[in-house]
Amino acid sequence: MRTGLAAALFVISTSTLTSAQTAPAPFDMSPERPAGLHPMVPRLTLPAPTVTPPVTVPDAPSVPAAPPKPSPSFPARPQTVQPDSTPAEKAGGMRRYVVPFDKFGLEGEYDRKSWSVYLTPEQAAAPAKFNFAYQNSIVVAPEASQITVLINNRQIGQKQIGSPDTPTQVSFDVPRGLLQPGANLLTFEASQRHRTDCTIQSTYELWSNIDPAQTHLSFEGQEAAKLSSTDAIRAVGVDGSGRTEFDLLVPALEQPGTTKPLLRLAQGLSVLSGMPNQSISFSVDTLPAAGPGKLTVLVGTTSELQPYFPDLPPAAQSAALATFVTDPRTGSPVLLISGPSWEAISSAIDTIVSPTDRAPGIRRDALTTERWSAPNAPLILQDTRLTFADLGVKTTEFSGRRFRTKFNVAVPSDFYANAYGEATVLLDAAYTGSVLPGSHIDIYVNGNIASTMPITGTGGGILRPLPIRVAMRHFKPGLTSRSLEAILTTSDDNICVPGATASTTSRFALFDTTEFRMPDFARVGQRPNLAAMAGTAYPYGRLAGPMPLFIDRIDADTLSAAATLLGQMAVVSGRPMTIEPTTSPGTIGDQDAVFIGSISQLPAAVLSQLNISTASQATWRPVPDTQVVQPDTNSAFDQWRSKVSSGAWRGQVTAFQEWLRKNFDISLSSLQFVPRAEAVFTPSNVASLMVAQGASPTGAGAWTVVAAPSAKDLREGVDAVTKQRNWPQISGHITTYSGKTGEIETVPVSRFDFVPSQPWSLANFRLIAANWLSTNILSYAFLLVVLSILLGMATSGMLSRLGRGK
């Protein structure tokens, strides 16, 4: 009996074990069983497939469930953060947006972008998380592509790229002690590969877009939101669209004597912040709302501010005061600048702005760009050599097909070498034997290709140093962006077997010992030159005395536009400029001056001096959305020329002119002895803002006019053109902006005057002459013929007196 029962039990156990080994076990989220309980006991005691509720033991500690293991082909998803709030913010923390652009993306097979984020001591000490959301192209291969985030050159996290359908939110913990008070370097780096294609063209389909509205640092605790000193102005940061706003409440805005200190304050705030997309607005009766990337500033005496901010510090009634106070409505910090009088307020403003003051004669070593592109761009004034390490380009080994890296330099406002000068890149690089002839390395300047170096050898090689000449045709005063791009083809790419796109075998290497060499160049100022004003605020940034600023009417829109414009000029100049507001053009004389306002408020004599039609004061009006835009007269003439019998001939002439310009850089403007006179300009009704520059009546100064059809158009137009993507496009004699189309158009300079900027020297004069003759070809040819004739006559006269007479 016992033997039979034991045999039956043995058969049942064997069958149970067999079914457990062959059938897949269901996914079990219950806690793990204690070690002492045999796993077969539940199947023996409860053979029927019934569902029973779990039994809880109050005194027993709970055992957390083991997380499911990720699939081998897909890494574990990092912790995600919802866009509305983070755990730190729910616990009383704060959010700090960090992307200084309205659109931000990483493109190609390799991309790296860096900028600095200024933090207060309270923010640097608080526990922090870095959060961002991204979406990528559907052709990006997730198994071979990743985004890396670094803070202060230390990697805080890496994420495989795999979100083509909807944005994916990612969160990385920031190690304690990594953040520091002041500037912190933030870097996004992307390595991307195509899913199936191995061609060069396919690399342009690779992109990952980062959402600025969901990219931020989240700090724990309420201390991070406090601003303890006026130095915290540098940490104002940006909002979710990359904008920085300074909102000033000034009840006495329209009173005489307040404009000058307010414009000095606006410039100081802009220089301290250093952000690329800043705007300054004034109001007289509304306390601005607080928000990310915004700083509310209260300016006025205690009696003026009392109705809007009752809880003023008692110290403001007796002395100048500049400090942060807390808005009782929102709990956000507000910058308070007050005192018993406007003389005291001016003194308080000086305490804030004075750290940014710099004498005009002190030379700068770099242009401040680190808030949107790190490191700062070195300012090159003479023959200079800079390594890629100095320019922020690191040594990189690359396994893809198109490698691209970018760096910035800057040249002064009196740069004059765009027609003959050549810089040199001394390339230190290497490529493997798989790289085929026909590959090449290209150099771009401000988005325009400047040089190409083909790779002709086989079997690989080390290029050290390989000189690549870069024409300085596209250089301009101020910031100049340069890119190095390597186009690499291999025989494996022509076959493109499965998995070839994800290869990690390096085929190209760029070393940070590569040098950029800038030769000596001609230095002389030019008038007019809006590109120099946009690049370094020339000539106003060099003035030792006050700059006259004509504002006929002081209202919130006009003064906001003036403050935003002067703030941007102060940023590129590197210092606040001394402003002397005036309402009388007769007091300006021949000084370097700026005129700003609606077109109807500007003096007609100033418009005539700059060759702007005075009739535009009555005819320049914004076009309503329902009104059909009438074609310009010149455009109509061009259209009718193509319809007449000579249209084909004119088309051939135009094609020939374009061929000369493209291949030999020869245009009709260079085939003339005397530059043509400036034509009278009439702004189109499609344009909503005009910036023009010309000489003063005697030619001793430069006058700049910033005008719009109305004060509202003026404010909106200045806010638009001072954005980082639009500001470098200001150039020539006149620049116009259309608020409806977002387009910027320029009228080139046809006649300009030289303005000496350096002590006279034969070397500089030779360089100036070389560039001028390279621009004016007919004059160069005529001078060459004259010199040849003179040389022949001198030689003939000398030979006639030599030898034996017969």
Number of strands: 36
As laid out across the biggest beta sheet, the strand order is 30-29-31-33-32-34-35
Cα-atom radius of gyration: 34 Å
Largest sheet: 7 strands, mixed
What coarse outline follows from CA principal-axis ratios?
Answer: globular
User: How far apart are the termini?
Assistant: 156 Å
- Assign the structural class, choosing from mainly alpha, mainly beta, alpha/beta, alpha+beta, or little secondary structure: alpha+beta
- Number of H/I helices: 17
Strand content: 25-35%
Poorly predicted ranges (pLDDT <50, ≥5 residues)? 1-91
Average of per-residue pLDDT values: 85
Q: Give the % helix.
A: 10-25%
Describe this structure in words.
The protein is an alpha+beta fold and 806 residues long. Helix 5 (259-273) packs across helix 10. The longest helix has 24 residues, at 777-800. The protein is globular and about 100 Å long. It starts with a helix and ends in a 6-residue tail after the last helix. Mean pLDDT is 85; it is low at 1-91.
Task: Write a concise synopsis of the structure shown.
The chain is 23% helix and 26% strand.
Topology:
Blueprint lengths: L1 H21 L18 H5 L41 H4 L3 E4 L6 E4 L2 E10 L1 H5 L2 E9 L9 E6 L2 E7 L7 E6 L8 E10 L15 E4 L5 E4 L24 E6 L9 H15 L4 E6 L10 E8 H4 L15 E6 L6 E7 L2 H12 L12 E2 L9 E2 L5 E4 L8 E3 L3 E10 L10 E10 L8 E6 L2 E7 L6 E11 L6 E10 L3 H5 L12 E3 L4 E4 L6 E3 L2 H7 L10 E4 L5 H18 L5 E4 L10 E6 L5 H6 L6 H4 L13 H9 L5 H18 L24 E7 L6 E7 L2 H11 L12 E4 L6 E4 L5 E3 L6 H14 L1 H24 L6
Parallel strand pairs: 11-12, 11-13, 13-15, 29-30, 29-31, 31-33
Antiparallel strand pairs: 1-10, 2-9, 3-8, 4-7, 4-9, 4-10, 5-6, 5-8, 14-15, 16-17, 18-27, 19-26, 20-25, 21-24, 21-26, 21-27, 22-23, 22-25, 28-36, 32-33, 32-34, 34-35
